[in-house]
Amino acid sequence: MSGEVEASTEEQQEMQDTVVSPEKAEEVKLKARYPHLGTRPGGSDLLRKRLQKGQKYFDSGDYNMAKAKMKNKQLPTTAAEKTEITGDHIPTPQDLPQRKQSLVASKLAV
Amino acid sequence: VNAPRGGVGGGNDFQWCFSQVKGAIDEDVAEADIISTVEFNCSGELLATGDKGGRVVIFQREQESKNRLLSRGEYNVYSTFQSHEPEFDYLKSLEIEEKINKIRWLPQQNAAHFLLSANDKTIKLWKISERDKRAEGYNLKDEDGRLRDQFRITTLRVPVLMPMDLMVEASPRRIFANAHTYHINSISVNSDYETYLSADDLRINLWHLEITDRSFNIVDIKPANMEELTEVITAAECHPHQCNVFVYSSSKGTIRLCDTRAAALCDRHSKFFEEPEDPSSRSFFSEIISSISDVKFSHSGRYMMTRDYLSVKVWDLNMENRPVETYQVHEYLRSKLCSLYENDCIFDKFECCWNGSDSAIMTGSYNNFFRMFDRNTRRDITLEASRENSKPRAMLKPRKVCTGGKRKKDEISVDSLDFNKKILHTAWHPKENVIAVAATNNLYIFQDKIN
């Protein structure tokens, strides 16, 4: 019996909160959509995600393969020019195709 | 009595007018073209922008022409260069963006101009110099540069300096690298004109402008156990006059003022600024929206301003327990926090700036709106950076967001706001009423109307 009375007091408090604070109402909405959202508000999970920005690839091989996929159109011409790289020629830094430079000028500078 | 249409940043007759817009018109915005920083130099003659593609564009103000009385000098392209390139850290499998996070000008000491530009990991000192003369009449080489046949040289002459078309050259003079494990969010030139600080999420370093192979670490908030991480550094700035004082803000909404005379490592602050929070109003969003995205000292050095998600606060350096002024930027967003969290907008980092006399402050919002607050008259105004209002010297009309109930004509409802059109970066000319507003890939320049 007393449990029921307590529950309705809590409900009353929540209703009051909703009326008083739009922020709390938004929190209720969010928790309804994501019930497993971190117990600590805005805590270390968020911060650690922020610190890890940029970490997209498992390793450098993964990174280079991803870049190669993007540059598929360019690969054939590069290979044709530097045929001596494949096979028995030991490449030097000067021989290797350079990473594409950003040659496009800013549109603000028009 | 008519509602004041201007009056912010100047006298009662003050009105902001459109001056220029730069950048592509088309709707399709290339990511590289997104402007990531805007900064006037110390005299206001030059205006620099940095973008996500790692490029810097510098505009120079035209000399005022006596014939064109109605408009002040316009800003035209002076120099542009590629400051940073994308890199890959093989050791950590970390892609390093070329996006320019911050540009800060050095005070001008000779004919050349110097600026610092920083991406996530590296800071570079660029020298921008003019060349308007060329030497002609060399003895050993001809005009094309080819070496002359030495036996043909029978007389000696002194090369003469001849005028040439103005060429503006940008060259990297110093590269300050490998000092930041985390992402650089701020750089700030010290008033001693010899040192500067750079801050990342967990550390702040002090550099000497001449020395690139080492820097002093002056703040380190990295916990021994990363599981215990509760806050990160979000911004830092040197005091404008006291070269031993700097401040840094945190993701928890606090600001620490440090004194480098007190200790070599400034982990212990000299002053701690925090506004007390009502514990009953705390919600999941409280800490996120209290995170400070920018901190700026006033020109006087007496105050500092902080920007958090919904407001701008002015603090008196002599009072740590609460700000002296609080301005609501877009309070109507408080009832939209759930969706702003879902679309990540709640993490947008807005900057703020002072006008030259510290009488007004400006910050951006969504829908290409930006807000200005006059500290003396307590008036505020919302303006829009839009090509629809871009006739030369067109007066800007104040905008209003309707928060509920009946929407009046010319008002825009909160649900109609475009959250992709964010104004994160704005700059105010150090002496005049000229402002630069970055709206995604376009740069708007507004000036006051001359009566």
TrEMBL record, chain B:
<protein>
    <recommendedName>
        <fullName>Serine/threonine-protein phosphatase 2A 55 kDa regulatory subunit B</fullName>
    </recommendedName>
</protein>
<dbReference type="InterPro" id="IPR001680">
    <property type="entry name" value="WD40_rpt"/>
</dbReference>
<dbReference type="InterPro" id="IPR036322">
    <property type="entry name" value="WD40_repeat_dom_sf"/>
</dbReference>
<dbReference type="GO" id="GO:0000159">
    <property type="term" value="C:protein phosphatase type 2A complex"/>
</dbReference>
<keyword id="KW-0677">Repeat</keyword>
<dbReference type="InterPro" id="IPR018067">
    <property type="entry name" value="PP2A_PR55_CS"/>
</dbReference>
<keyword id="KW-0853">WD repeat</keyword>
<dbReference type="InterPro" id="IPR015943">
    <property type="entry name" value="WD40/YVTN_repeat-like_dom_sf"/>
</dbReference>
<comment type="subunit">
    <text>PP2A consists of a common heterodimeric core enzyme, composed of a 36 kDa catalytic subunit (subunit C) and a 65 kDa constant regulatory subunit (PR65 or subunit A), that associates with a variety of regulatory subunits.</text>
</comment>
<dbReference type="GO" id="GO:0019888">
    <property type="term" value="F:protein phosphatase regulator activity"/>
</dbReference>
<dbReference type="InterPro" id="IPR000009">
    <property type="entry name" value="PP2A_PR55"/>
</dbReference>
<comment type="similarity">
    <text>Belongs to the phosphatase 2A regulatory subunit B family.</text>
</comment>
